[in-house]
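Query structure, 191 tokens:
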């Protein structure tokens, strides 16, 4: 069984463990909900696609992220949100993505409930950055991204509250915050 088949089988067979803080929230109807797409590119050595946001954005400038954003009133679901935002940011057509499923939502620092959507993208699919939002598109080998030995965390004091901040380094990219927390949760879900 190859890496991608193993990932798909494990992802579909293991349900995320709900946390008390998120269990009571209906992620598809939260007022401050958002979704990100975790695009896995189906290559012989599968990769996970990331974006680096432009320096001039009002929020999260220059940060590494997955394509995604806030739910809009016309979005019928968070999957639709993730696909719409992915199209706006990196021109991935919704019909190019095979959705595998949703992970448990994670509350962001800005009080959004962010739902990661895992999807497969053909190696032949074309995508390109929207220069108003995305500075760089890059890929990380899936095996590397899901290896817990590459994941790190520190405890920070945020206005008297101790919080765990995840970070992950790949080549010249420092992936941290919510994006790193999502990768960590996905890796832990597959252990």
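Result returned for the query:
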């Amino acid at each position: 069984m190859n890496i991608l088949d193993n990932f798909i089988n494990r992802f579909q067979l293991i349900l995320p463990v709900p946390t008390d803080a998120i269990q009571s929230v209906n992620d598809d109807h939260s007022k401050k909900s958002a979704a990100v797409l975790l695009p896995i590119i189906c290559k012989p050595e599968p990769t996970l696609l990331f974006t680096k946001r432009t320096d001039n954005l009002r929020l999260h400038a220059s940060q590494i992220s997955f394509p995604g954003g806030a739910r809009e009133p016309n979005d019928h679901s968070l999957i639709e949100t993730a696909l719409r935002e992915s199209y706006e940011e990196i021109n991935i057509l919704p019909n190019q993505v095979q959705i595998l499923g949703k992970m448990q939502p994670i509350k962001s620092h800005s009080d959004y409930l962010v739902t990661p959507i895992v999807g497969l993208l053909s190696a032949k699919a074309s995508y390109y950055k929207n220069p108003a939002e995305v500075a760089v598109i890059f890929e990380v080998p899936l095996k590397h991204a899901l290896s817990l030995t590459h994941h790190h965390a520190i405890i920070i004091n945020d206005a008297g509250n101790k919080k765990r901040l995840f970070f992950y380094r790949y080549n010249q990219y420092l992936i941290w915050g919510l994006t790193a927390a999502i990768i960590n949760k996905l890796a832990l879900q597959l252990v």
